[in-house]
Each structure stands twice: as structure tokens, then as C-alpha cells.
Known about the structure:
6 helices
Amino acid sequence: xxxxxxxxxxxxxxxxxxxxxxxxxxxxxxxxxxxxxxxxxxxxxxxxxxxxxxxxxxxxxxxxxxxxxxxxxxxxxxxxxxxxxxxxxxxxxxxxxxxxxxxxxxxxxxxxxxxxxxxxxxxx
Length: 124
């Protein structure tokens, strides 16, 4: 089975090449999915049937965040939302980053946020 944290390792390996925008955007997207999929698999233990249904027809991202809140982990849910916003900007906002420094800072922040989320998920 694929380990979602491998997406984080992939992003970290690419960060040195993040001098071009497509690579930076890819790094940010992979950090989000590393965090989301790690959270999803933690939540799956408690809601396997519900998640299976959602994978076919619904928004599992919101479901995972809501179940984290239900289990008294609103902090993790909020951090996932923040990382999702970074991913949405990277995926959908075609305006360039203001500078290479801003782009690299955004990638570094996404990696750090993902690492923090994965660390916090160990207590779920």
C-alpha cells in the first residue's frame, strides 16, 4: 500500500529545484495530499463505511476535516484548511508569484505545515 508521506518526501526532494514555478506549484500540491491522505487513513479507522461511500460520490476532504473536529482535533482540521488554500492557489491561481523568494517561501511553508499536521495526526 502507498504511504501518503511519500508525497511529502517527493516535495522535499523537489524543493531544491523549486526555482521554476511549475515545480513549486507541484510541491505545494503534493504536501497537501500527503497531509490529507494521512488524515483520511487515520479517520478511516473510526468511519470505514462512511469513507468508502464518500470515495465513490462525495467530498471526503470535508468529511475528514469534520470528523477531526468531532474527535477534538479542530487544530488539525484548521491546518488542513490552510494547506488546502495553499494548494488551491498553486493549482488554480495562474497569476505568477511576485518573486522567486515568495515562491520558495510558499513551498517551505507548505512543507512545514504538512510536517506539523502529520506530527499532530500521530495523536489521532
